[in-house]
Amino acid sequence: MTAPAIRPARPEEAAALSALVLRSKAHWGYDAAFMAQVRDVLQVTPEAIRAGGVFVAVDGDDRPLGLGSVGIADGAAELELLFVDPAAMGQGAGRALYRHAVAMARAGGAGTLWILADPGAEPFYRAMGATTVGQAPSDAIPGRMLPRMKAELTA
């Protein structure tokens, strides 16, 4: 199977990418009340896309399969988003997005890629080489703790 292409997100895709993120999050079995709590935090805005750092995995017809976003500051990078449409899971989009995130972080001078992971995604990040270093608070739900992971980017 050919790896999906990765390209920059386009501002006009913001609503469709936000819907993809919510479908992906809901895939882990969260109920409607939970999804309502995280909806605002998981929005992909045209402004965020214009600011750079948001990228999309696409199929041969340029349909989004997933998206990612990386923020870089002070020699470290944060994986801000990495979501794959449930219909595309298991087809290489997540691996392609993660590898692109690592390449962006390295290109930006980061030595570490930090990840605040959904518990359901923690095994994926481990398989990609990240390690769990503890827990950190959710940015959407007060009192909820999530796996805090990191990938060392130096060889």
TrEMBL record:
Signal peptide: none annotated. Keywords: Acyltransferase, Transferase. Residues 4-152 form the N-acetyltransferase domain. It comes from the Bacteria. This is GNAT superfamily N-acetyltransferase. It comes from Inquilinus ginsengisoli.
